[in-house]
Amino acid sequence: MSELAETPRPPYYAVIFTSVRTEGDNGYEKMADEMVKLGFNQPGFLGAESTRDINGVGITVSYWDSIEAIENWKNHLCHKEAQKLGEDLWYKTFATRVCKVERHGLFKPSVE
Amino acid sequence: MSELAETPRPPYYAVIFTSVRTEGDNGYEKMADEMVKLGFNQPGFLGAESTRDINGVGITVSYWDSIEAIENWKNHLCHKEAQKLGEDLWYKTFATRVCKVERHGLFKPSVE
Lengths: 112, 112
Prior knowledge:
Two copies of one chain form a homodimer. By secondary structure, chain A is of the alpha+beta class. The first copy, chain A, has three helices and four strands. Helices cover 31% and strands 38% of the residues of chain A. The first copy, chain A, has a four-stranded antiparallel beta sheet. Strand 4 of chain A pairs antiparallel with strand 4 of chain B.
């Protein structure tokens, strides 16, 4: 995915997913790639930003046009399978926050 | 800072700061440490989560009890100085999003 998401004018919605990975891959990378592809094709998906440091601490923020779109993605059968494996195998701990984006600003001097 | 922020029950507010660093330190680490110390002591600050990958893509999410607390921190004189250096020296690009957190969930099997 590109580094910064190109989202429309607020309001829209964000899901902040903060996590700490367990040791080892255990199939994580393959599933993460699949979830990115699948997530990007969901109705109402606007974009995402994701990063993880060398200590295994990661933040992924996905942007959506409605709460309904977030709920649909949360309950998608393939995504639920990934969530289950995430709890069992891939994450020591995580937090999920659903937010309404009220304002945003972009700094991109080299492009515009 | 600890890996996951311990925030109260929603609603509360989040600032999602996504950025791409320029090459070299240029005084960034020192200022980042100072801003963490200063930010953590602002009225209305609830916690923060931050990570940056080896490609220089970083996401920092800070949590606040009100929009007013976010505005006060945005306009803090020392923080404004850091923001100016950020635009001039440290970031290729960045986005700031102000959000209302409506729901959150925590997964922490090893502790609770």
